[in-house]
Specification:
The chain has about 375 residues and is α/β, with parallel strands linked by helices. The chain contains 12 helices and 15 strands. Helix 1 packs across helix 3, helix 2 runs antiparallel to helix 3 and helix 11 runs antiparallel to helix 12.
C-alpha cells in the first residue's frame, strides 16, 4: 500500500501556486483602490470634499477579517496581514503623513505603524504639543499620541493639549509594551557595567534588573531610542528599548520581555481634523467643566447611568484659568450620533459650565 502523504516537493509546488494566486488577488484589490481614488478625485473636481482614509470603514473590514477567520493563523495575525495590504492600497490613493511623539524607534512610532501600517510616512515630533500643531495646521494628516499606560497612569500632557487644540479623536490603538535588553556590535556581554534607558522603562523593569544586573549603573536618557542609539560606540553598556529600536540600530537582543508586569500596555489616540461616522463599535470622548459645588461629579455622571451608557474612563485635571476649577475627561461607549447619547449629552451641556466634544471613533481592533 503506497504512502499517500504529499512530498516536500509537492507541498512547495502548491505553496508557489497559492502565492501566485494571492499576489494576483492583492493586485486586483490595488486596482480597485486606484479606481476608488479616481472617483474621489472626480468628486473633488466638482467641489465635494474627498476623504481618503476612513477609520470606521477600516475598522469594519478588520473586524470582518477576524470574524470569518478559521485558522490555523490566529485572528490578530490575519488582521495584521490585511492591515498591511490596506495600508499599501491606501497609499495608492493618497500617501498619508503621520506625526507622532518621537524620536524614531519609540513605542509611539510602533503604535502608528500598528494602526496605519508601514506604507504611511511617519514624522517624529519632539513634544506632544507639536504633534497636535502639525495636525491642526494640516502639515500632517493624523497624529499619534500616548494617553494612558496600564501601570504608569494617564499622560497629562496629552489631556491638557486637548483643551486648546482644534482636533478630533479619530481612533485608538493599544500596544503591549515589551522591553528588551540589547547590546551593540562592540559590546562585551560579560562586562556590562552601565545600562541606558528612559526613566519610565527603568521603573517598569526594576525587579528584573535587580535580579540580573544589580551592580550596573542605570543611566536615564531622553528616550529608549536614544538609549539604543548610544550602543554603536559602547563596549561595556547595554540599553533597554523596544523591538523597533533594535531593528533600527541593528542591535542584538540579549533578553526579551524583561518588564516586571507582563500585561503592561499603553493606549494611544489618533487625532485628526474630521468627524468619524459610526463603525458599529465606537467610543466617544468629551471634556466637561462643572461648577465647584458639592455633588458636582455625581450630578455629571447621573445622566450616563440613567441612560445605561458605559463609562470607560473618567480623569480629572485642574483648569488652567487659576480658579481651582477642574476639568473632567470622560470616555464612554457608543457614538455621539445615536439618540441615547444625544439626549445624554444635551443634559450634560445644560448643567455644565463647559463641554468640549473630542469626537467619536472606532474601538481599537488590533
Amino acid at each position: 500500500m503506497s504512502d499517500s502523504k504529499p512530498t516536500l516537493e509537492t507541498l512547495r509546488d502548491t505553496i508557489d501556486q497559492l502565492d501566485q494566486q494571492i499576489q494576483e488577488l492583492i493586485n486586483q484589490r490595488a486596482h480597485c483602490a486606484q479606481q476608488v481614488a479616481d472617483v474621489k478625485q472626480g468628486a473633488m473636481a466638482e467641489g465635494e470634499k474627498a476623504v481618503f482614509y476612513r477609520p470606521e470603514r477600516e475598522a469594519q473590514v478588520l473586524r470582518r477579517v477576524m470574524e470569518r477567520n478559521v485558522g490555523p493563523l490566529g485572528d490578530e495575525s490575519m488582521a495584521r496581514l490585511f492591515r498591511e495590504i490596506m495600508s499599501a492600497c491606501l497609499a495608492l490613493e493618497e500617501p498619508m503623513s503621520i506625526a507622532y511623539l518621537g524620536p524614531e524607534g519609540t513605542f509611539t512610532q510602533a503604535a502608528a505603524q500598528k494602526h496605519f501600517g508601514h506604507a504611511v510616512k511617519t514624522a517624529p515630533m519632539a513634544t506632544i504639543d507639536e504633534v497636535f500643531r502639525e495636525v491642526e495646521s494640516g502639515s500632517a494628516h493624523y497624529g499619534v499620541v500616548p494617553v494612558e499606560n496600564s501601570t504608569e497612569g494617564v499622560v497629562n500632557t496629552t489631556l491638557d493639549s486637548f483643551t486648546h487644540a482644534n482636533v478630533s479623536i479619530c481612533g485608538e490603538v493599544e500596544l503591549r509594551i515589551h522591553h528588551h535588553l540589547m547590546v551593540g556590535p562592540n559590546t562585551r556581554e560579560d562586562a556590562i557595567t552601565r545600562i541606558y534607558s528612559h526613566q519610565q522603562s527603568f521603573a517598569q523593569c526594576r525587579q528584573w534588573l535587580d535580579a540580573h544586573y544589580p551592580t550596573a549603573d542605570r543611566i536615564p536618557v531622553s528616550s529608549n531610542s536614544d538609549a539604543a542609539r548610544r550602543m554603536k560606540s559602547e563596549w561595556n553598556a547595554a540599553a533597554i528599548a523596544g523591538e523597533v529600536a533594535a531593528e533600527m540600530y541593528g542591535l542584538k537582543v540579549l533578553a526579551s520581555n524583561i518588564e516586571d508586569n507582563p500585561h503592561n500596555s499603553t493606549r494611544f489616540l489618533i487625532v485628526g481634523r474630521e468627524q468619524v461616522p459610526p463603525s458599529g463599535e465606537d467610543k466617544t470622548s468629551i471634556i466637561v467643566s462643572m461648577k465647584n459645588k458639592p455633588g458636582a461629579l455625581y450630578e455629571l455622571l447621573a445622566p450616563f447611568h440613567e441612560a445605561g451608557i458605559m463609562l470607560t474612563r473618567v480623569e480629572t485635571r485642574p483648569s488652567k484659568d487659576g480658579t481651582w476649577a477642574y476639568l473632567f475627561f470622560i470616555d464612554f461607549e457608543g457614538h455621539e450620533s445615536t439618540e441615547a447619547i444625544k439626549r445624554c449629552l444635551k443634559r450634560v451641556e445644560e448643567m455644565a459650565v463647559y463641554v468640549k466634544r473630542l469626537g467619536s471613533y472606532p474601538k481599537a481592533v488590533l
